Amino acid sequence: MALAECDDVRRRREQALTACCLAVAAETDTGLEPARRATMLMDCLGVLRAAHPAGRAAQLGMREFRRGLRGGLAPLLPPGEADDRFGGLRLLDGDGLVRDALEDLCREHLVPQAALDRHWPWARVRAEQEERRLFEVMRRLEPEEYRKARALLAECPAGPLRVLRKRWDRLWMRFDFFEAVSDWPWCQLEGWWYPCPKCRWPMRVVAVGREVEVRCEAHRPRGVHYRMSQEQRGRGMAPILIGTGKASDPVVGLPASSDHLALNRPVWRYGVLPTLLEIELRDQLKGRAHVRVEMWPGELQPDEYDLKITVAVPGRSVRRWRVDAKDWASAAALAQALLERESKPYTLYIVVPDHQAHEVAYLKQRLAGRRTKVLTLTRIVDQVKQAAGGRDE
Questions:
Q1: Is 102 within 8 Å of 46 (Cβ atoms)?
Q2: What are the C-alpha distances in Å from 26 to residues 39, 125, 198?
Q3: Global pTM?
Q4: 16 CA to centre of own chain
Q5: Tens of pLDDT along 171-222?
Q6: For the purposes of burial, counting CB atoms within 10 Å of the CB of 142, is it exposed (0-12), middle (13-18) or buried (19 or more)?
Q7: Average pLDDT of the chain?
């Protein structure tokens, strides 16, 4: 069996195992509303079916699923290597109670306890797994490798395989978060895909009435959106896009083929976008007198903070900002994630994009009592400039 095929088999088995763990947590929670339990079980069954070959998936109904959760998992899991030992696992004991092994399994497969206690939907669990897997990979890197990987997240999140392998170089084999763009129909326009001019990740293609709109999900609020031109083009050429937003710089279509790859969505959302925010903050303060910006301090674990800004004006007290940039779609989910983190012995500045300024008050309210301050990018830049002297150089 080829290495890529082995990886796919392992991934399918692990996804199915995670779905079974989530289903057992919902099935055995006596306080869970029946409608919510049914929704959770259907969600998990969908994941399980997707992990199986088509013929076998059709035989998996809800009755077989619930019955299988009470025995060894072998009948529920897709075919795989015998030595992974998943098939012999039992998640419930003889009395129908959850075995302690369930929590251990979830910890080993990067599923947070909150996902079991609060019955997260599969999509959120999957995103959390990928974010945690990214963190596990990053924390094992040497400081210089870590800084290089963070920069590459912003500079090279998608493109032709040959280009990606050259740019990522020695990190390529350690950073297995790329997927083929050919498997993502949502970003394809007549066999082509278009990288966002801001984040370089594939933009989404959406039919709006009689027109086709191409837009970046993250940067649309900043004016990154286009429409497909009806202009005639040569054979084999990509459709022409006409910018309809203030930040719609010219973009060129690339073939949506199997040798064009992009970082998976969770890594883009929780790795690429915050990195871009950090770089933008650094660039806005670059060259300012009395201001020092340290990116991704090497002496710290990656989960500490991402930037350290120091203002040292002669004759004044030194001021410092320890910054963790966040670019989440949901302020509520971000607040919950921050509340679940261990408190730090210093004030942590959470920086969000300017277009989320209306969410700052909510985040401040949710995080009240913690050593955390929430600011937009522009607001923290203004604070630092004022502390450094208040005038642009």
A1: no
A2: 10, 14, 41
A3: 0.75
A4: 20
A5: 998 888 999 999 999 999 999 999 999 999 999 999 888 899 999 999 998 8
A6: exposed
A7: 87
